[in-house]
Amino acid sequence: MIVFPPQPDPAYYYGFVYFRQVKDSDIRRGYFQKSVVLLTRLPYITFFNFIIQRIAPEYFTHGLASLEAACGNMNQWPPPRPGQQLHLPILGQIIYVRLPTKSDKPAARDGEGPVIKKSSSVVVIPSVHDLNLHQALQPVLNNFEMIWELVITNEPIVVMGPSPTLCANTVQALVSLLHPLKYASDFRPFFTIHDSEFKHYTTRTQAPPRVILGVTNPFFTKTLDHWPHVIKLGEISSSNPGIYSGLF
């Protein structure tokens, strides 16, 4: 359970992406594809997931003017300070959020998403950063102790799943298992073949680096088959909805 927000790491950015794909016969591939990406050094997963889901649909509906309005709102936000209750305007809504402190006790609502109260113009976010660890790690709970040992010993781990969201949440959950200790190695919640370090991570001439990767491209099934620890996540089976693929 994370009680207070992790500190920003100046060496990394966190990216939150809203992707839209719409059929369009006028385009060669048959689809219009576009993404809105929010970059920040603040590791507030729950908070920024809500923000990107708020501003991206407005952009696709109203264009750049909505992004300019959202940026104008965010420029008015005060710096984050633990223990401070913040009222943050964003595109006609007010977000109520409080950054916890080290002395706070775990909240009863930790890990849940934003809660809308009183009216659609008021949103209360119980936690800026916590993931629902039980939900994120449900597919591999039977191997929980083994996975915890792999994470704390900085073993190379690749998480393969059907969607970026599923992979990213799982990787973030794995890293969070060590709290209050800081995960000492690198981690990539969503890694693609276009990454500049693709060759470094897929080479067979040396041992896999001590990193946790989240991937969705089936191509990685072959290129990373030499990695010692692979977590495979699958869609819930229609015939047996409680069964997922697990640790391989």
Secondary structure layout:
Layout: E1 14-23, E2 31-40, H1 45-62, H2 64-75, E3 85-90, E4 93-98, E5 115-116, E6 122-125, H3 133-136, H4 144-152, E7 157-160, H5 164-176, E8 186-188, H6 198-202, E9 211-215, H7 220-223, E10 230-232
Parallel strand pairs: 4-6, 7-9, 7-10, 8-9
Antiparallel strand pairs: 1-2, 3-4, 5-6
Task: Summarize the model shown.
This protein is an alpha/beta fold and 248 residues long. It has helices spanning 45-62, 64-75, 133-136, 144-152, 164-176, 198-202, 220-223, and strands spanning 14-23, 31-40, 85-90, 93-98, 115-116, 122-125, 157-160, 186-188, 211-215, 230-232.
What does the model show?
- Helix 1 (45-62) packs antiparallel against helix 2 (64-75).
- The chain has helices spanning 45-62, 64-75, 133-136, 144-152, 164-176, 198-202, 220-223, and strands spanning 14-23, 31-40, 85-90, 93-98, 115-116, 122-125, 157-160, 186-188, 211-215, 230-232.
- The protein folds into two domains: 14-125, no CATH class; 133-232, Rossmann fold.
- By secondary structure, it is an alpha/beta fold.
- It is built from seven helices and ten strands.
- This is Protein DENND6A.
- It comes from Geodia barretti.
| CA(first)-CA(last) distance | 27 Å
Strand content: 15-25%
Q: Which spans of ≥5 residues are poorly predicted at pLDDT below 50?
A: 108-112, 236-248
By DSSP, the count of extended strands is 10
Question: What order do the strands of the largest sheet run in, or round the barrel if closed?
Answer: 3-4-6-5
By oligomeric state, this entry counts as single chain
**What order do the helices and strands follow?**
EEHHEEEEHHEHEHEHE
Summarize model confidence as the mean pLDDT: 82
Q: Rg, please? A: 19 Å
